[in-house]
Amino acid sequence: MTDDPVDDLKPSFRSDVTVELVKHSAADSDVLWAARVSTAGEQSLDELKKDPERSKGLINYLMRDRHGSPFEHNSMTFFISAPIFVFREFMRHRVGWSYNEESGRYRELQPVFYVPAESRKLVQEGRPGKYRFVEGTRAQQELVGRAMEDAYVHAYEAYQEMLAAGVAREVARSVLPVGLFSSMYATCNARSLMHFLGLRTQHELAQVPSFPQREIEMVGERMEALWAELMPLTHAAFNTNGRIAP
Ligand SMILES: Cc1cc2nc3c(=O)[nH]c(=O)nc-3n(C[C@H](O)[C@H](O)[C@H](O)COP(=O)(O)OP(=O)(O)OC[C@H]3O[C@@H](n4cnc5c(N)ncnc54)[C@H](O)[C@@H]3O)c2cc1C
C-alpha cells in the first residue's frame, strides 16, 4: 500500500501469506503444571523445574496416550493475511479457535489479490482426496498469471464503479473473487493448533497423511514454526507421535 489514495486503488498481486504471532501465553511448562495437578495437587507449580528429562517424558506420555486437556492451558493469537479461499477452509476449524476478520460491509476492500508463485505446482493427478500435484508447463504458468490478473482487475473495476454510483459496500462486494486477500486474528491453544496442523499440513512423520490445499498449508507451516519456538518439547512430542493431536 502507498500513501497515495489513487495508487491504493490499483490492484496488487501477492503469492505469499502473512502470519504474525501478535500475542501469546504458551510454554511447555503450562502442559506440565496442568498435568501434574493430578498427582501433586496445588504443589504442581513447584514441580516444574525439578527434572527436565522427566518433564520431557511426561509430555511425550500425554501426547502418546492422547491425554489432551493439559495442552489447552495456553493461548496464541495470530494475525493472518491470506486469500479468502484460505479463510473459508480455516474457519471450518470450530473447536478451540476464536476468529475476527475484516469486514467487507464496514470498510472498502483493498485490491490485493493472490497469484501463485512459480514454485506452486499447478496440475493435479490422482483421485479426489488424494491428489498429487506436479509442475505446470511454462504456458500454463503464463496463462494462470495472465487470466487471474485480468479477472481481478476487471472485478475490482466493477466493484469501484458500483461504489462510485453509491451502491452499498455489502452489495458491491459480490463481484470480488475468493483470491482477494483478507485479514483476521485467530486465537487457539496448542491442542487445537495440533489438530489443525494434522489436517492442514503434509509431513513425512504424519501417521495419517492429509492432502491439504497448498495455500492453507503455507499458513499452517508458518504457524507451526512460531509455535515450535514457544513449546519445543510439545512440538517434538507431536512429531514423534505421528502428528496426531492428543
Ligand atoms: C484435506 C481436506 C479436505 C476437505 N474437504 C472438504 C470438503 O470437500 N467439503 C467440506 O465441507 N469440508 C472439507 N474439509 C473440512 C473438514 O471436513 C473439516 O470441517 C475441517 O477439516 C475441520 O476439522 P474438524 O471438524 O475436525 O475440526 P474442528 O471443527 O476444530 O473440530 C475438532 C474436533 O471436535 C469434534 N467435533 C467438533 N464438532 C463436532 C460435532 N458437531 N459433532 C461431533 N464432534 C465434533 C471432532 O472430534 C473434531 O475432529 C476438508 C478438510 C481437509 C483437511
From TrEMBL:
It is an enzyme of class 2 (transferase). The active site is at 200 (involved in ionization of n3 of dump, leading to its activation). Pathway: Pyrimidine metabolism; dTTP biosynthesis. FAD binds at residues 69, 92-94, 101, 189-191, 195. Its cofactor is FAD. Keywords: FAD, Flavoprotein, Methyltransferase, NADP, Nucleotide biosynthesis, Transferase. One of its GO terms (biological process) is dTMP biosynthetic process. DUMP binds at residues 89-92, 101-105, 173, 200. It catalyses: dUMP + (6R)-5,10-methylene-5,6,7,8-tetrahydrofolate + NADPH + H(+) = dTMP + (6S)-5,6,7,8-tetrahydrofolate + NADP(+). Catalyzes the reductive methylation of 2'-deoxyuridine-5'-monophosphate (dUMP) to 2'-deoxythymidine-5'-monophosphate (dTMP) while utilizing 5,10-methylenetetrahydrofolate (mTHF) as the methyl donor, and NADPH and FADH(2) as the reductant. Belongs to the thymidylate synthase ThyX family. Homotetramer. This is Flavin-dependent thymidylate synthase. It comes from Streptomyces nodosus. The lineage of its organism: Bacteria, Bacillati, Actinomycetota, Actinomycetes, Kitasatosporales. The gene is thyX.
